[in-house]
């Protein structure tokens, strides 16, 4: 039997994935990277983007809003600020969320509110792009 990678994906709300897989593609802050069994240890920040969890012919995609990736001899752990399974996204709801976020940005009166609205808009655009790809 081929070696497997122990992988866990955790957000502040819950553990979204835990299991053995063939590999994981991660959107690193300094560039995307793949993690396979027996990968060299590394700890890095991750940027907003899509991870691909590969197991045999199956690939599960999840969208992350930043966090940390820690590769150890025991496997890979991703601590995500926010994570969503792309299979759970609803295009119609995202379209409404996108319009609302654009309106919130246009209506923001302070720098703090503009920054928060801009961040939310960027996240929803990322989700929309991930669903489309």
Descriptive account of the structure:
- With about 130 residues, the protein is α+β, with helices and mostly antiparallel strands.
- It folds into two domains: about 5-85, Sandwich (ATP Synthase, domain 1); about 90-130.
- The chain has two helices and ten strands.
- It has helices at about 90-105, 110-130, and strands at about 5-10, 15-20, 25-30, 30-35, 40-45, 50-55, 60-65, 65-70, 75-80, 85.
- The strands form two sheets. A five-stranded mixed sheet has the order 2-1-9-8-5, with no helix packed on it. A five-stranded antiparallel sheet has the order 4-3-6-7-10, with helices on one face.
- Strand 6 and strand 7 (about 60-65) form a beta hairpin.
- Helix 1 (about 90-105) runs antiparallel to helix 2 (about 110-130).
């Amino acid at each position: 039997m081929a070696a497997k990678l122990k992988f866990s994906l955790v957000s502040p709300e819950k553990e979204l994935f835990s299991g053995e897989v063939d590999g994981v593609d991660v959107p690193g802050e300094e560039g995307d990277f793949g993690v396979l069994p027996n990968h060299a240890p590394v700890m890095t920040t991750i940027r907003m983007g899509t991870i691909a969890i590969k197991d045999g012919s199956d690939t599960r995609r999840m969208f992350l809003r930043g966090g940390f990736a820690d590769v150890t001899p025991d496997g890979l752990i991703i601590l995500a600020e926010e994570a969503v399974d792309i299979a759970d996204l609803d295009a119609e709801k995202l379209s409404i969320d996108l319009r609302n976020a654009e309106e919130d940005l246009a209506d923001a009166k302070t720098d703090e509110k503009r920054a928060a609205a801009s961040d939310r808009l960027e996240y929803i655009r990322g989700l929309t792009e991930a669903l489309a790809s």
